[in-house]
Specification:
The chain has 79 residues and is mostly helical. It contains two helices and no strands.
Length: 79
């Protein structure tokens, strides 16, 4: 009986996740862009000039420091 209940739970969970994924992909295509952009030649898009290099370096260095700290703690715990 327990095996049947577990199989039923797994089947229900998989069915729900597959149903949600189908709903998520059933979106209408975006509308065409409004006039003005690219009508008279190659014009750059408005905005989007934020640099991401500095933030990316900070994020990667903090992640490496955190990983090194966790590895050091695991090494100290084994001793």
């Amino acid at each position: 009986m327990k095996k049947i209940m577990n199989l039923t739970k797994i089947t229900l969970i998989l069915t729900l996740f597959m149903g949600w994924s189908l709903v998520a992909t059933a979106q209408a295509p975006p509308p065409p862009p409004s006039g003005g952009h690219g009508e008279t030649g190659n014009q750059p898009a408005n905005g989007g000039g934020a640099p991401i290099g500095g933030g990316l370096v900070i994020l990667l260095s903090l992640g490496a420091a955190y990983g090194g700290r966790k590895a050091y703690q695991a090494f100290k715990k084994e001793e």
